[in-house]
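Open question from group meeting: does this chain pack into something compact, or does most of it stay loose? Before anyone orders reagents, we agreed to write out a predicted structure and look at it together. Recording both the input and the output here so the notebook holds the full record.
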Amino acid sequence: MQLEYTERQQAFRAEVREWLAAHVPADPLITLECREGYDQHVGWERTLASGNWGMVTWPERFGGRGLDLIEWLIFEEEYWGAGAPLRANQNGIFLLGPTIMEYGTEEQKARFLTPMAQGEVIWAQAWSEPNAGSDLAAIASKARREGDHYVLEGQKTWSSRAAFADWGFGIFRTDPESSRHNGLTFILFDLNSPGITRRPIRQLHGHPGFAELFFDEVRVPVENRLGGEGEGWKIAMATAGFERGLMLRSPGRFQATARRLVELYRQLGDRASPAAREAVVQAWGAAQAYAYNTYSVAAKIMAGGRIGAEASLNKIFWSQLDRSMHRTAMQLLGAQAELRTLLNGQPNDWLEGYIFSLSGPIYAGSNEIQRNITAERLLGLPRQGAG
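Structure tokens returned:
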């Protein structure tokens, strides 16, 4: 594959690089997973919005720049290359936003997208339940229609960003007689609504990046429903496609990690083993391969195509790539990999990155489930357990 940029794209890259150089904080922000760090990252979202960088592919009337997916990939490459902060609103701009763009009414687009792009409203993803994690079709939380409101009852768990976010999105069972994929409805809700209880879940590093949500007679206006009643599964699968296939993990993130890994190997010099050198080379090549594949997917979408079951392959690849790169870094660092500060006095960013990478094969749909999807829908193999 030969990738050549137009003069316009090259000029855009230069514009992004110049703006980021002037605005990316000189000192890293505190972790996004604690209250103080979360507030810092929300401030960064608003800094991005001041330059209309919140989500560059969205129309200008919603706070974007009306750019195409290739330009978004260029932006992401520069963003991660500049060492810019993690996105506090990634659940909104990368997952819910494109879903609203596809399934929302004009009123919903006007109401939700602009505050999302401007960092004024931060979104939590509320998919999983105690008995419905990777098996999303086992959703048990209910939404009972009462006039012009739904009344929500149930529990969500492992809700990303829910410890501090403003709003959440999830699917609820609106048909009490239904089962599995049927009778589900996609609903948006204010996390400060009466009847919602948040219980933060602390992670390995002690910070609450997730939360349990308990719904006790929570009243939500019907206009907060996305799509039709009972269409929740279809819409949720579109959101999952954005999550696994293109938006959530852009290649710029992994290319930046690969560059850092190469630099770490060079710093160690003769202390690094030949096996480590091979692992670093493989990581670099895999990150580049992922980038080229993503450009191909973007070109397909721009030509009118859609992301299908191949999104599952994509998710398996980037989650394993992230884990392998961080594992290689930990092996290179040896005993000091377990220290928060390296022997040269630098913060050990590899440690937290490694811990987070271990969750990659689980979130966005476990890799075991994604392999089943790949086998059945791409390879045409019989369904697991079928006679």
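Observations to bring back to the group:
The radius of gyration is 21 Å.
The chain has a mean pLDDT of 89.
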